[in-house]
What we know:
Blueprint: H1 6-29, H2 35-58, H3 64-88, H4 97-118, H5 124-158
Amino acid sequence: MLAGQFALALILFSIAGVSDAVDGFLAKHYHWESRLGSILDPIADKLLLISSIFTLTWVGLLPLWLLWLVLVRDIFIVVGGLAYHHILGEFSLKPLWSSKINTVLQISLVLWVVLDQISVIDMKQVITINQWLVVASIINSGSEYILVWGIQAWKQMRK
Length: 159
């Protein structure tokens, strides 16, 4: 993307997405799930998304404030999870549905922006709508993590 090769970026992003889906399917179908996998898979997903959003911001296709919002939410979740783990002990690493929706919206935003660069059709309106859906989902999922983990922490401290 830095070199303006958006068609290649789209192909690579698609390969990464398909391989992630196949990996997830195989892990669930054959019960190859592990705690390590449950940690590494979302980290890999986040690295792909954040590096894509960072690059699109760097080349001027996404606003800097959106990158910061994405980063702040993810940092908040990681720091909250680490604090929860060190203060109260091990907890489930299953992502909330709102977080899955947020990930899908971020992926779709990256795809729309990249497609806009290789398409003859102007997708600015779709990108703007998708961008605000990402903002709403970041606020929603971040708030839900605060609520869910806060209630779990409160219950665990009362024991």
